[in-house]
């Protein structure tokens, strides 16, 4: 399954800093936070707000954003474009 998580530039920088401190890739740290959030008793059957509260409690995000975030930002990736990989 692929999941896209929209983060503000500040949240993304904080995630990358935490990953750097742990010596891990940011994506791996984010997956860990998501898994922890899904397994947390307070989030197991809760809404998006409860999940965001869990991330706030864990120090992943500095505040709970209000409303829906804007459109997703493109993420730079190394290597060939996905379209080229699909064509091959």
H/E element sequence: HHHH
Secondary structure: helix percent: 40-55%
Instruction: State the domain count.
Output: 1
Low-confidence stretches: none
- What about the largest sheet? none
Query: What is the overall shape?
Result: globular
End-to-end distance, in Å?
A: 22 Å
Structural class, judged by helices and strands? mainly alpha
Helix count? 4
Tell me, rounded to a whole number, the average pLDDT: 76
Strand content: under 5%
Gyration radius, to the nearest Å?
15 Å
The total count of strands amounts to 0
Describe this structure in a few short sentences.
With 88 residues, the chain is an all-alpha fold. It has one domain. It has 4 helices and no strands.
What would you note in describing this structure?
With 88 residues, the chain is mostly helical. It has one domain. It is built from 4 helices and no strands. The chain has helices at residues 9-22, 26-39, 48-57, 82-87. Helix 1 (9-22) crosses helix 2 (26-39). The longest helix has 14 residues, at 9-22.
């Amino acid at each position: 399954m692929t999941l896209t998580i929209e983060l503000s530039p500040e949240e993304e920088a904080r995630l990358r800093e935490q990953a750097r401190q742990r010596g891990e890739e940011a994506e791996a740290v984010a997956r860990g936070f998501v898994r922890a959030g899904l397994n947390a008793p307070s989030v197991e059957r809760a809404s998006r707000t409860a999940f965001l509260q869990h991330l706030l409690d864990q120090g992943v995000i500095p505040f709970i954003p209000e409303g829906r975030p804007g459109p997703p930002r493109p993420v730079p990736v190394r290597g060939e474009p996905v379209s080229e990989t699909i064509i091959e």
